[in-house]
Design goal:
GCP_N; gamma-tubulin binding; two-stranded antiparallel ribbon; Four Helix Bundle (Hemerythrin (Met), subunit A); about 850 residues; about 65% helix; 3 domains
């Protein structure tokens, strides 16, 4: 009887115990046979039922683990056989291979097979416990045997195996979960879900259960980290993945934007939810580098790979994994800057972005605007609106880019092929009457949302040139996309939309000036020195002509001053400064090699520290995560990066510092162009809209504000009525323009003295100053008051260091000059706009009219 019980505990069948419930139902436990139960004491029956339940759980878990491991081995063998014979199979052999592939897909997978093997290792302790009990019985050990005759109470056996009740019950529940027909089949359990299940099982207060599930989780984590290292450090990314040969990332094909490179995608089923999105992005970042190097028959340095692999394998699946991946990203990024993403590549890319997005290639920028105007005229105005060709698509705009490059320096530039337009609103067709109201409503919606923070620069200026949202983009391939992130490209696109809108308006006003001048010269052939007309209508015609010339002169002066300031004082100065900083890295000292180790250690330490602090308090070089230009803290960047950048440049410019330099460069460009503050950008957009409205009216009037002498009154209307109507429109535009220019100038003035501006706003609010003016001025003041630290930081840095060469001193002087311009760019714009005191007189007259007192 006792031997039979031990055999049942070891997983062998016996007639003393029967399944419950009986066949054909699925059994859930074992019970003592009714034929034996009638001869047993109730205490003995209870003990046997307890041991039977334990035996049933053991056998169930063991059978599942053994069958799962065997099926996993068979699936792996079938996959290897199919792979070996796939290229030379025919007929029946091909059909057999297809059947083998189906067997691979229906297999349990390598992760479940590994879990089954680890589970069998755990059950070996149970087997040893059975052998130990049998040995004690045979040796008449008094711990189990009660007397010399070998009597062993069943209660002693139950007590001996009682520590296995809870573990086997928990393992049985896990097996039921993995093989349940009602939820997910074992063949559909992804590695990520298996890891989550085991991790959840470790969260228990039973030390025995915790140690068992921790051992199971450790075996799965080791396999997962091995697959992670294969992609992260060795670039193993197959085109397909199977359960028997899973992969962390897959090669999904050629990059459509850069066909010479490949696109890699993480297999989301491989990742548990505990791996954050930031960590996944870093894994893809580093793995793509290793995969690309592998395709080019290159690898990362062996010492670097070995150290990073050891750190990743030791990290586990907790917070240590994020630290290890961050360290790998910093180390690989530094190596990339030294050997792959070299200085000339960066300079070439920055020159291309400067020429096309910052419109430093003025001939090409003007040619593009004229080509788009010609395209709009030919497709939407002169063409048949019901024709299929009367539509503007993205490919039409891309063709216009190529036509615009003819005769310019961009004609032979290979970077031009990577430029493309994006029309977020879809193809543009002639405006139908049914769409006019909805268009007006959407425009009003954009205007009203400008002060709520919902409007972007693209919303304000993207539709300026064509009437529909239009954004210029550039395809950036590897390795340039390592520092030209999507947020960087978006920032460049915003700057281009603003500068293009400004150039387009400036070009329209110049054409309007030319049209007015040509019309006046043509008219003066017949009227002499006057504007013609009878003595009654001559004064009105003269006043209208003078008002039109004054308005277009004010428009042209403002646009000339604004564009020259932006292109000369902001873009050119900062672009040259960035290139000089990059050029300075070539003149490194002998300490570059010795500093590399300290840089790596500082990155590793700062990354660990960054995990325990908030994002706003991280060090400038702590995290290689993609930057965000929309919510960047320019003051903290200037105060930290200005000093740290120069310190690092003295010996070595690493990859992460490059990204910080470029981030600061773009941040100041957006601030110097006055588009970092949406209300200020909206005010500039309103001024441009007024200018375009005036030029459109002049164009509709035939290129002149004055009607022809013989045309007025020909239709029966009163002579002089048309002149008066046009005079009212021109005066309205003039007043609106003066109001907007005064408001813009006042906001710039108040930004130079935020404290006094608050007092002035409070004192003049009763005199009729509008709330919108106050709001815009205060918001611009807060944006501009962050610039005071540039020149001071530059002067401090200029006084440090030992002996310097003449080239270094010249480069440092140019850097200090650029930094001083950063803090004085608003002052320079004020001097350009008010060098003759006109705008100051306008504001003085407005205040005089509001207070009713003479300003003298």
């Amino acid at each position: 009887m006792l031997a039979e019980v031990l055999l049942v505990l070891g997983g062998h069948p016996s007639a003393f115990f029967v399944p419950e419930p009986p066949s054909p139902a699925r059994p859930t436990t074992l019970t003592t046979s009714p034929h034996l139960a009638e001869y047993l004491h109730p205490g003995e029956l209870s003990s046997l039922d307890t041991l039977a339940r334990l035996a049933f759980r053991y056998r169930k878990v063991r059978d599942w683990a053994a069958s799962t491991r065997q099926r996993g081995r068979d699936a792996l063998l079938a996959e290897m056989t199919a792979e070996r014979g796939r290229g030379r199979s025919k007929g029946k052999e091909k059909a057999q291979i297809q059947q083998g592939d189906q067997g691979v897909e229906s297999g349990p997978g390598v992760y479940l097979s590994t879990l089954a093997s680890a589970l069998l290792d755990v059950l070996r302790e149970y087997d040893l416990a059975i052998v130990s009990v049998e040995a004690k019985i045979l040796s008449l050990d008094p711990e189990l045997v009660q007397d010399s005759k070998g009597y062993v109470p069943l209660s002693s056996v139950v007590a001996t195996f009682d520590p296995w009740q809870a573990p086997l019950a928990a393992l049985e529940r896990m097996v039921d979960t993995l093989s349940s027909d009602s939820s997910l089949l074992d063949s559909t359990w992804s590695p990520g879900k298996v890891i989550e299940l085991l991790h959840q099982s470790t969260q228990t207060g039973n030390p025995r259960l915790q140690s068992i599930f921790t051992a199971l989780l450790s075996s799965i984590e080791t396999l997962w980290l091995t697959h992670l290292s294969a992609f992260l450090l060795f670039g193993d990314a197959p085109s397909s993945s199977s359960r028997s040969s899973p992969a962390i990332a897959l090669d999904v094909g050629a990059d459509p934007l850069s066909p010479q490179h490949r696109v890699y995608k993480l297999d989301e089923d491989m990742f548990p939810t505990s791996v954050t999105a930031r960590t996944r992005e870093s894994i893809l970042y580093v793995g793509r580098v290793a995969s690309t190097l592998r395709r080019e028959s290159r690898t990362l340095p062996a010492e670097l790979v070995e150290s990073l692999r050891d750190e990743v394998m030791r990290a586990g699946m907790g917070d240590g994994l994020e630290i290890a991946i961050g360290t790998a990203r910093a180390e690989v990024g530094e190596w990339l800057w030294r050997h792959i993403l070299t200085g000339p590549q960066v300079v070439e890319a920055l020159e291309a972005f400067g020429d096309y997005f910052l419109t430093r290639n003025g001939d090409f920028a003007l040619s593009v605007i004229r080509e788009i105007h010609h395209l709009r005229l030919s497709k939407l105005v002169t063409d048949n609106p019901h024709s299929s060709s009367s539509v503007i698509r993205e490919q039409d705009l891309n063709t216009a880019l190529l036509r615009a490059s003819v005769g310019t320096s961009a004609e032979s530039d290979p970077s031009l092929e990577r430029l493309s337009w994006k029309m977020s609103g879809g193809p543009l067709r002639p405006l139908m009457p049914s769409l006019s109201s909805s268009t007006a409503r959407s425009k009003r919606g954009r205007e009203t949302s400008a002060f709520t923070g919902e409007t972007t620069i693209q919303d304000l200026f993207g539709s300026s040139i064509l009437g529909t949202p239009l954004a210029l983009g550039m395809t950036v391939g590897w390795p340039l996309d390592l520092f030209l992130t999507p947020s960087t490209l978006s920032a460049y696109s915003d700057v281009h939309a603003f500068l293009t809108a400004l150039r387009d308006t400036h070009l329209r006003v110049l054409d309007c000036w030319s049209a007015l001048s040509a019309s006046q010269r043509q008219r003066r052939k017949w009227t002499g020195t006057t504007e013609g007309g009878t003595p009654l209508e001559a004064p009105a015609r003269r006043d209208l002509a003078r008002a039109a010339w004054g308005t277009v002169r004010a428009m042209l002066f403002f646009l000339d001053a604004l564009q020259s300031h932006f292109m000369t004082d902001i873009i050119d100065v900062q672009h040259r400064r960035l290139l000089e900083e990059l050029d300075g890295v070539g003149h490194t000292s002998h300490a570059a090699g010795s500093l590399a180790g300290s840089l790596r250690s500082s990155y590793r330490g700062s990354f660990r520290a960054g995990l325990s602090t908030t994002a706003s308090k991280r060090d400038g070089l702590a995290s290689p995560a993609p930057e965000s230009h929309a919510e960047i803290d320019t003051q903290s960047i200037r105060s930290r990066t200005a000093a740290s950048t120069r310190k690092v440049q003295a010996s070595f410019l690493d990859f992460l510092t490059l990204r910080q330099m470029h981030t600061r460069h773009l941040s100041f460009l957006k601030e110097g162009l006055l588009i970092s503050d949406i209300p200020t950008a909206t005010l500039i957009r309103d001024i441009l809209d007024v200018c375009k409205r005036f030029t459109a009216l002049v164009d509709r009037w035939g290129g002149d504000v004055l009607p022809e002498l013989l045309v007025e009154g020909a239709a029966g209307e009163e002579v002089g009525e048309l002149v008066a109507e046009r005079a009212r429109v021109v005066n309205e535009i003039t007043e609106t323009l003066h109001e907007l220019l005064s408001e813009f100038f006042r906001a710039l003035l108040e930004s130079q003295n935020p404290v006094s501006s608050t007092i002035t706003d409070g004192s003049t609010s009763a005199a009729g100053a509008s709330f919108s003016k106050t709001t815009r001025a205060l918001q611009l003041s807060r944006a501009m008051s962050r610039q005071v630290s540039f020149s001071a930081a530059g002067k401090k840095l200029g006084g440090t260091g030992g002996a310097k060469t003449k080239a270094e001193m010249d480069r440092e002087e140019r850097g200090l000059e650029a930094e001083s311009l950063m803090g004085r760019h608003v002052e320079q714009l004020l001097l350009r706009l008010d060098f003759n005191g006109v705008l100051t007189d306008w504001i003085a007259k407005e205040e005089q009219g509001a207070t009713g007192k003479d300003i003298l």
